[in-house]
């Protein structure tokens, strides 16, 4: 009779060890999958950041040139139609101030929108987290059904 109880205990211990080993393997696979997903997302982010930085740098140079053109255009447009008139147009410093204020307002609006969108970004590996949640619920169901 002791032999039967020992065999039952041995098979239960073996079963529990097998379950624990399977859970360990499952966790290892999920960690590898999450790491691979994270590295893939990181590589995509690096590429996107490099392209974005290059675009921002080129856009900044263009913006500076456009701003200078706008200042000189505003100054030229404010000059009187007839050079004989005694009145002069806007001073150059006023033209720089007007164009600078316009760019400050636009930059503030774009910065606010960009910060809002950046706050909505989720850098977590969502697919891996969903898989882990499914695995945990499956394990919970299996252990609840075995009782």
What this model shows, in words?
The longest helix is centred in the N-terminal third of the chain and has 76 residues. This protein is an all-alpha fold and 147 residues long. Helix 1 packs antiparallel against helix 2 and helix 1 runs antiparallel to helix 3. The protein is built from 3 helices and no strands. It has one domain. The chain is rod-shaped. The model has no long low-confidence stretch (mean pLDDT 80). The two termini are 25 Å apart. 85% of the residues lie in helices and 0% in strands.
Number of domains: 1
- The strand count comes to 0
Total count of helical runs of at least 4 residues? 3
Mean pLDDT: 80
H/E element sequence: HHH
Any chance you could write out the topology, listing elements then pairs?
Layout: H1 2-77, H2 92-119, H3 126-146
Helix pairs in contact: 1-2, 1-3
Task: Sum this structure up briefly.
The chain contains three helices and no strands.
Keywords, separated by commas or semicolons:
single chain; 147 residues; 0% strand; 3 helices; mainly alpha
